[in-house]
Amino acid sequence: MVESVIKRTDASAATRRSTLGIVFTTILIDFIGFSVLIPVLPIWATRIGAGSVEVGLILSLYAVAQLVFLPAWGWLSDRIGRRPVLLFSLFGTVLSFLLLAAAQSLAVIYVARILAGFFAASIGTAQAVVADVTPPEQRASGMGIIGAAFGLGFVLGPALGGALWHVHELAPFYGIAILAAVNLVLAWWWLPESRPPEVRTKNWDGLARVFVPPPIRLMLSLHDRRIGLYLYLFLHLFTAFAALESMFTLYLNKRFGLGPLDAAWIFSVIGLSIAFTQGGLIRWLAPRLGERKLVVIGLVLTGIGLAAIPLVTSSSWFFALGPLIAIGNGLSFPTFTSLYSKACHEDKAGELMGESQSMATTGRIIGPIWAGLAFERLGYGAPFLIAGLMMFVALGLFLLWRRTLLGEGAAAR
């Protein structure tokens, strides 16, 4: 009997590793497709008439569609399983990238990015898969696997985008469509279902409620206070960090005259640092320092790095500042997400993880718009200085609310 238990445990561990491996591959390819756009799309959009505000709007429209529909995908995955939701999401992503590849005007770009946001259920559902297959004590390292995929995607995606740009201005967009198709095929053959029928939510009520965006839910107090505070901090953090995602390429171009390939190299260094941090360093630090301390350290490093961007006088400094920001991001964001996942009720994990992504997405709606306005009216460095200050505000709120966020008695740890 003991041998039978050991075999089942080994099989469970093997299944967990296999599932996490497939999730890593799926998110990696998905994020390569996203990060290919970072050094390319802002420059290309400006060539067809977009200013900094319009560039921000391209990112914001994608995020608006995510905000409205992502919680519904999580709600659905709690009921029909994670696999069909992920597969449908990836199929729609292929279609949206094909439309983007064919776009020759800002209007078509806007439509393509709205469709991409509509189908972008993969992140929240992938986090729910990790929550399904990892015990609480391994949750931070599990979330770190997704973060490592982000980081590695940041290494490969911008470099690929910059290289393809030199082949043809539209080559990066066709390359994205091909990568998305490969992602769909891999997930179709290899992604298992992590939520078996016996544990799926049987109640199909409440679909209309999930279409109420989480920021409105927060204001209407549709969540308990602990969840509400977490959701606000997701909004705050991503509103700040969106300044880097949306305006950094334009900043490099306007301030230092760098093109997409130059920007791609800097983003690749940032991505390599994120991959190192979330794929390895966080696993070593989490059991030694604890998740609360890692959130604090990460926010401090990120805030310093962002605020220092306007102060440097040479683009070579970004090969030092980039890793500083990346390590801060790689320590704080996965551990904060892990803490949030432990506050979620198990029967609503998919829905609540989807809502956290929706709050992050709301930040990506607000962030590019305010950053574009600050870039245009206050100066090229203003978005990054403001973002750095916002990181320190988030740190203060996290410490102020720590007893509620971490649960009764957890603040002492």
Task: Characterise the protein shown here.
The chain is mainly α. The protein has a single domain, classed as Up-down Bundle (Growth Hormone, Chain: A). 81% of the residues lie in helices and 0% in strands. The chain has 17 helices and no strands. α6 runs antiparallel to α7 and α12 runs antiparallel to α13. The longest helix has 34 residues. The two termini are 38 Å apart. The N terminus and C terminus are likely disordered.
The largest β sheet comes out as: none
Gyration radius, in Å: 20 Å
Could you tell me the strand content as a percent range? under 5%
User: Could you say which overall geometry the principal axes of the C-alpha atoms support?
Assistant: globular
The CATH topology comes to Growth Hormone, Chain: A
Strand tally is 0
Distance between the termini: 38 Å
Helix content: over 70%
**Uncertain parts:** 1-11, 409-413
CATH architecture: Up-down Bundle
What are the secondary-structure elements, in order, as H or E?
HHHHHHHHHHHHHHHHH
